[in-house]
Automatic annotation (TrEMBL):
It comes from Cinnamomum micranthum f. kanehirae. This is U-box domain-containing protein. Its EC number is 2.3.2.27. The keyword Repeat applies. Keywords: Repeat, Transferase, Ubl conjugation pathway. SUPFAM superfamilies: ARM repeat, RING/U-box. It is an enzyme of class 2 (transferase). GO terms for biological process: protein ubiquitination. SMART domains: ARM, Ubox. It catalyses: S-ubiquitinyl-[E2 ubiquitin-conjugating enzyme]-L-cysteine + [acceptor protein]-L-lysine = [E2 ubiquitin-conjugating enzyme]-L-cysteine + N(6)-ubiquitinyl-[acceptor protein]-L-lysine. Pathway: Protein modification; protein ubiquitination. PROSITE patterns: U_BOX.
Length: 403
């Protein structure tokens, strides 16, 4: 069994003395030496009357199947064909092969790296990730991704490995901050435009990590086509993973204040508003509310939220249904459009959705002081409509009403 690519050591007694390969059907001669059936049969058919290993004359050319050895080989193959842990030697070999000019060699190495990084055993995959990071894989992978003339297939393979390396690891992201990596928007845009949802998800994941860790990435964050493709990914995907990856990347881009109006202008608000209203995923709702909170800090974002008739009702609907963090983000959005922006359409939507009741409940909960103050500001906004807004409100919380 030749597995040089994974540097697997084959036990010597599993090898046929003639072919030197792992035996598929081991049989024993009368001398007690075991060979692979095909190899020894060829030896005998060629007129030889001796044991190839000992050169003893054969009393008989009959051989006996060695079932015990065959079973041992099968057990060994089942384990060795799916190794879980990278050795340092193999990690360095695979990383070095990524710098070679051969596209086939690079793809083969990337496939092996992905295998080790997505192993079903979390402990093994974590150890492999740490080993690869410490072995210097991150600069090599980013350098390969930003190389000129790279094929779409190779770019997909690189972002697959990078997304696995960078996933859920603060230590890895700290390493990313200090490493010198090449940054170019073109490969990510090419992948996002390809329509491959899995590859696009990986690209968005890598972009989000890169944007969150680095400040010198204006070439990426200010690429309008890239933002448009991320919005398209969130609007066209049906599974939570690509949607969350796209929104998380948009949130990372929106941390650059000057980018918020561009994200709004490219139509993000209606898209994420529909997601918020129609998704049952708590993870999606939380990420959408985080993006809406960020966009509501700019005037263009507040205007877009108010102009879309579905957004504010969806925010009210999701209040107190996802998590404490999501609830407070919803409060920020409502405070921005109802109190800060003073938009009548938003105020009416909150009133119709029994939003004041939920705001009062948030005030009673263990929310942050900032969220409680925003709730208080919102209550004052709705004072004139308090009777109609509170017609169905449980009196257990009326003691906090300031009127």
């Amino acid at each position: 069994m030749v597995r040089d690519d994974l540097v697997i050591t084959v036990p010597s007694f599993f090898k046929c003395p003639i072919s030197l390969d792992v035996m598929k059907s081991p049989v024993s001669l009368c001398t007690g030496v075991t060979y692979d059936r095909a190899s020894i049969q060829t030896w005998l058919d060629n007129g030889n009357n001796t044991c190839p290993a000992t050169m003893q004359p054969l009393q008989t050319k009959d051989f006996t199947p060695n079932h015990t050895l065959q079973r041992l080989i099968q057990i060994w193959e089942s384990h060795s064909s799916n190794p879980s842990l990278l050795s340092q030697q193999l990690a360095l070999k695979l990383i070095q092969s990524l710098t070679q000019p051969s596209p086939d060699s690079r793809l083969n190495s990337l496939t092996q790296l992905a295998h080790f990084l997505q192993h079903p055993d979390p402990e093994s995959s974590d150890k492999n990730r740490e080993l690869l990071v410490n072995a210097g894989s991150i600069p090599v992978l980013f350098g390969l991704l930003s190389g000129h003339g790279q094929s779409l297939e190779l770019s997909r393979a690189v972002v697959r490995v990078l997304s696995l390396v960078l996933s859920d690891s603060e230590n890895v992201r700290k390493k990313l901050k200090s490493d010198s990596v090449s940054i170019d928007s073109k490969p990510y845009l090419m992948i996002l435009q390809s329509g491959d949802v899995d590859a696009s998800t990986d690209a968005a994941t890598v972009l989000e990590a890169l944007i969150s860790c680095r400040s010198d990435i204006s070439a990426v964050t200010e690429c309008e086509d890239l933002v448009s493709e991320l919005i398209r990914l969130t609007s066209s995907a049906t599974d939570a993973r690509p949607i969350c990856a796209g929104i998380s990347c948009l949130v990372a881009i929106a941390t650059r204040r000057r980018m918020r109006s561009q994200i709004v202008r490219l139509g993000a608000v209606p898209v994420i508003g529909r997601l918020l209203a129609g998704s049952d995923s708590g993870e999606v709702a939380e990420k959408v509310l985080k993006l809406l909170e960020t966009l509501s800090t700019c005037s263009e974002g507040r205007a877009a939220i108010c102009e879309d008739p579905a957004v504010v009702p969806a925010v009210v609907q999701k209040m107190r249904k996802v998590s404490q963090a999501a609830t407070e983000r919803a409060v920020v959005v409502l405070w921005s459009v109802c109190h800060l922006f003073r938009d009548g359409r938003a105020q009416e939507a909150v009133a119709k959705g029994n939003g004041l009741t939920k705001i009062l409940l948030v005030m009673q909960s263990e929310c942050s002081p900032a969220a409680r103050q925003m709730c208080s500001d919102l209550v004052k906004i709705f004072r004139v409509n308090s009777k109609s807004c509170l017609s169905s409100y449980d009196t257990k919380t009326t003691h906090i009403m300031p009127f």
